[in-house]
Design goal:
alpha+beta, Arc Repressor Mutant, subunit A, Beta-Lactamase, 6-stranded antiparallel β-sheet, two-stranded antiparallel ribbon, 9 helices, 8 strands, 46% helix, elongated
């Protein structure tokens, strides 16, 4: 019985380690758990058979499997919210605009945290809401982290729903916007999700290099870009500078 409990405890520790690291090999697990390579291999083989972990190819490192991948995503987002909160409050106070944290759920932007602008005329919290990713700055910067194949799977050729007259209308147009976001490192929304609302978004990357969330400053177009110019206004450039600096500060504290 004691040996069985020890094996269960070690298996749970492996899953915890894989939540903190994108992939680990037998030697990594052996060293981190202070067990022999044969014990590490036995534990990983058991977890592999039950789909708790996976290997892309035999002999390669292990990752969380289908039964646990959602857990890792949830843990990473919760960790990101925890780390980002004080930085978001500071950004809200310095920009005087609403600040959001968002994730990507298939082809939708899901808002997971927000701090509202103190202005009477402001964008209110979107927490709990989902909006089409192609119509939001947060969604477009998150889509820019996908491969071309992943993007094509989400958006086959054809027309896209347009929440406003300013929304992206086709998959081809979306690809151009995503390519631009990859190039410049930010995405912009000008009345694309809701009339009169603009936003700027940057990615938040975890230590392994993937994107876990997007950080967004949102406000009325009348303040962000009163002339409606396709070029960034002076105010938008200042917001983007503060947004990017905040993202770097958050990323420096992310563990997974």
């Amino acid at each position: 019985m004691a040996q069985t409990l020890q094996s269960v405890s070690q298996a749970l520790k492996i899953l915890e380690l894989l939540q903190q690291h994108p992939s680990l090999g037998v030697s990594d697990i052996s060293e981190l758990l202070a067990v022999s390579p044969s014990t590490a291999h036995r534990l990983l083989s058991t977890l592999l058979e039950s789909n708790f972990v996976k290997q892309e190819q035999p002999g390669r490192k292990y990752q969380l499997g289908p039964l646990m991948s959602g857990s890792r995503t949830a843990s990473a987002v919760e960790h990101c919210i925890e780390i980002a909160t004080p930085h978001m409050l500071t950004l809200r106070d310095t920009t005087q605009e609403t600040v959001h944290l968002a994730t990507l759920t298939r082809a939708h932007t899901r808002f997971v945290a927000a701090y509202e602008s103190p202005h009477i005329m402001r964008v209110t919290s979107r927490v709990g809401r989902q909006l089409p990713a192609h119509a939001t700055a947060a969604g477009k910067i998150l889509l820019s982290a996908l491969s071309d194949a992943e993007l094509a799977e989400l958006y086959p050729e054809g027309d896209l729903a347009q929440p406003t007259t300013g929304s992206i209308g086709t998959a081809a147009e979306l690809r151009r916007h995503v390519a631009h976001a990859r190039e410049v490192g930010y995405a912009r929304n000008m009345s694309e999700a809701e009339p009169g609302v603009g936003a700027l978004a940057v990615p938040l990357r975890h230590p392994a290099g993937g994107v876990v969330c997007s950080l967004t400053v949102t406000g009325p177009d009348a303040r962000l870009n009163p002339t409606g110019d396709v070029r960034l206004s002076a105010h938008e450039r200042d917001l983007l500078r503060q947004l990017s600096a905040t993202a770097r500060s958050i990323e420096a504290e992310l563990r997974y």
